Amino acid sequence: MEESRDLVQLSTGDMLRAAVASGSDLGRQAKDVMDAGQLMPDDLMIQMISERIERSDCGSGFILDGFPRTVPQARALDKMLTGKDLHLDAVIEVKVDEDILVERITGRYTCSKCGAGYHDKFQVPAQAGVCDACGGTDFKRRADDTEATVRTRLAAYRESTAPILPYYREKGILKTVDGMAPINKVTRQIEASLTP
Ligand code: AMP
Fold this sequence. Notes:
The protein is α/β, with parallel strands linked by helices. It has eight helices and seven strands; from the N terminus they run E-H-H-H-E-H-E-H-E-E-E-H-H-E-H. A three-stranded antiparallel beta sheet has the order 5-4-6. A two-stranded parallel ribbon has the order 1-2. Strands 3-7 form a two-stranded parallel ribbon. It binds adenosine monophosphate.
């Protein structure tokens, strides 16, 4: 999606995982919070995104992945964008049954070398243990993709993130996509919701 539209994808989860890997103070704090399935403090996340969207690669637009996750983050994002004379074109809600989501998340893993995504049940490599894309043989799973942590993450979503939906619905930019559909259909629905 981001390649076809010359957009950069800004994932706060990826940024936090990079901080964990770097061993910084932020990374140490993030590791405990992420492993517990909780949310990081709003002020840290707002600052992280506000610095990131200043960079020149965001000039032709960006996709925010995992941000905003709370109403205060959504309000801060609005302020940030207004200050730069920018606006959100769309907010995409991907709806998936929770038990299905747990099955999808706990079974997923990626190639350590090229990042290609796989799933224990739904997307196995043609040759067991070998990446279809690059031939790599080392794979990794996210530490927070265990069932207990996913359930806590879903509870955090219901409590703190779902309340941003009415906020964007009122602004008329919320698009809801059926995440239970096959992958190519979900992609098409997202593409369509980005087309004015
Ligand atoms: P994700 O990769 O988007 O699933 O995020 C993984 C974890 O990073 C979350 O469970 C949170 O602990 C943390 N995180 C990512 N984005 C945010 C955010 N916008 N606000 C608070 N915590 C976040």
